[in-house]
Amino acid sequence: MKNFFDNSLIMKVILITAIIYLPGTTISESKYTQSLFTPVNTLSDSNKTKFPEHYFRFPLKPGVDLNVLTHIVSLDNVENGFVYAFANEEQWIQINKLRLEIEELAHPSSLYDHEMRSTHTIMDWDSYPTYAAYRNMMWQFASSYPDICRLDTIGYSVQNRLILVLKISDNVSENEDEPEFFYTSSMHGDETVGYILLLRLADYLLSQYGQNTTEGMRATRIINELEIWVNPLANPDGTYRLGGDTTVNNATRFNANNKDLNRNFPDRISDTNNVLTGREAETQAMMRFASKRNISMSANFHGGTRVVNYPWDNGAPSGQYSACPDDAWFIESSLSYSLTNPDLMSGSFINGITNGCEWYAVFGGRQDWIYRWHGGRETTIELWDVKNPPGSVLPQRWTNNKESLLAYMEQTLKGIRGIVTDAVTSQPVRAKIFIRNFSGSYVNTDSFTGDYHCLVLPGTYGVIFTAPGYVSDTVNNVTVEDSIAIRLNHVMNRIPTNITSAEAGMPEDLRLAQNYPNPFNPTTIISYQLSMINYVSLNVYDALGKEVEALVNEKQNPGTYQIEFDGSGLPGGVYFYRLTAGELTETKSMMLLK
Ligand SMILES: [Zn+2]
Known about the structure:
Layout: E1 21-22, E2 25-26, H1 42-47, E3 54-59, H2 66-69, E4 74-79, E5 82-87, H3 89-95, E6 103-105, E7 116-117, E8 128-129, H4 131-144, E9 149-156, E10 162-168, E11 180-185, H5 193-208, H6 214-225, E12 227-231, H7 236-239, H8 281-292, E13 295-302, E14 307-310, H9 327-338, H10 342-345, E15 353-355, H11 356-359, H12 366-374, E16 377-382, H13 394-410, E17 416-422, E18 432-435, E19 442-444, E20 451-454, E21 459-466, E22 473-480, E23 486-487, E24 490-492, H14 499-504, E25 510-512, E26 523-530, E27 534-541, E28 547-556, E29 559-566, E30 573-581, E31 584-592
Helix pairs in contact: 5-6, 5-13, 9-13
Bound molecules: zinc ion.
Zinc ion (ZN) binds next to loops.
C-alpha cells in the first residue's frame, strides 16, 4: 500500500462520550459509548447563543400539514411521531406563529468536543481534519498519484472557502468514453460522517490502484472504467462555521447566509426557472459544475438517520410515494447500496431505502434538480443517526459502508452505453437519449466525447436518439442484461437547414449562392465567393444528411468560384450542399428532378 501520510507522533486521544439519548434516536452501538469525559452539554451551554440556527421538533398530529411547513422551515426528519426541523431566525419567527407544540433541542453539533488533527494525516481515520489539513490532504492525493488523481475546484463558498473536488480516473486529464460518477458530502455542514468517509474512499481507491489483490483489482477496474469525482465537503462554511477553520464543533446545517443548500436548487414544481440568479454561492458553483460535466450517477451524503432516499422528493402530498420515471431502477440501485450495509439495514426504514416524498416532501433539493435538468441519477444517502459524531465512531462507519460505496459506483457500468456521432463529420453529437415508454427519463451525451450511459434495468427497450438539427431515430429491441452495459453506438443525420436563417448570420467573407439552374437534371452550377485565403470544402448530402459527393477540398485564394455538380446516377429529391471555409460554414438545398 502506498502510504503518503506521515507518521508524526499524534497522541491518540480516546474520545469519550456519554450514553446520549438524542431525540428519537439512540447511538445504538454500545461499544462506542464510554464513560463521561466532557459533560455533554458543555459545548451546547457555552455556545447556545452563538448558534445562528434553531433545531427543534414538534409532534406530527392531524392538522399538522408538512406540505405547508416544508416551505417555511427546513424539515430534517420525520420519525416516531415527531417532525425534526431546522430554522434560521426569520424562519424561527414564522414557525413560532403556528401552534405546533415546538420543543427546541440542543443543536446536534453541540454535543461533542471533537478530536481534530492539524496535519494532513488521519492515521486511523478516527478524527476530523482542520480546514487547512483537509485542503492539504486533498492536495496530497493529487500530488502523490498524479496519473490517476487531479485536484479541481467546484467553486467558492460565501466566505471564500474552496469547494474542492478530486477527479480519479486513468488518463485523468482526458475526457474519455467512460461514465462519470460523483460522490459529494456534507452540503449540510453539520452532517460530517460522509466528509471523512469520502476522504477515506479516495485514499482507499488511490492506494489500492494497481495492487495485485482482489481488492486492488476491483479498485483498479473502477478507476479505469469510470471518471470518479469526489467532493468530501460541499458546505465548508457550515462545517467550520463557529470553530473557525480549526474545529467541526458547532458546525451548522446552513451556509454562512443561514440558507439550507439542499432547499436552494431550482425545482420542477416550485421554482422551475433553471437559472443561477438569486441562489447561494455554493449552489451556483454546484450548478455550474453539473452543467460542465455529464454525471451519470451521483450520491449526496447526509446524516441524521440511516437511509438511501431517491427521487422524487415532491410531487405528491408529503408522506405519500411520488414515483419518478426511473422508479424501478432507483429502487434496485438504492438496494445495491443498502443491502450489504449493516448501518442502513438496522435503521428504521425497510431495506434501508425510501422514496423521498414518502418520507417527507422537500422543494429545491439537489437530487431532483440533477435528475430533472441533467438526466443524472442522484440519491440522498443518510449515513448515521448522529449528524456530527465523535471521531471514534468513524472507523466502523467505513467498515459498514465500504462495500456499498464500491458497489454503488459499479452500477454505472450497467445498462446501455455508446457514442453518438454525426454521420458526415464523425464528430460527437450533443444528443438526448430516451427510452421508449419511460416518459420523462433521459440521459445526455457528453459534448466532448459523445458518450452516453443509459442506466436501465435488464430488459428489452426501444432507444430514441434526438439532437437539435438532427433526424431523430429509434433503435428497437435493445436487450440489456444484468452485467456490463450493452454497447449501442449511433450515427445521426442532420435535417434540412433553414436557408434563410443560415444566410442571415453569415459574415461577409463567405458567400454561397443558390445553385443554378434549380431544380436541375442532371447538372447545376454552385458558386461562392471567398474574401480571404482559407481551407475550403464543398460537400453534397442527401436528404438524410449522408454525404454523396465532395466537390472541393483544398486551400483557396480569395475570389469567385463556380463548380458544376452532376446528379447523374442519383435518385431525384432534395439535396444539401455545404460550404466550409475555416470555421465558417453555410448550407443550402437544391432539387434534383427525375
Ligand atoms: Zn442533510
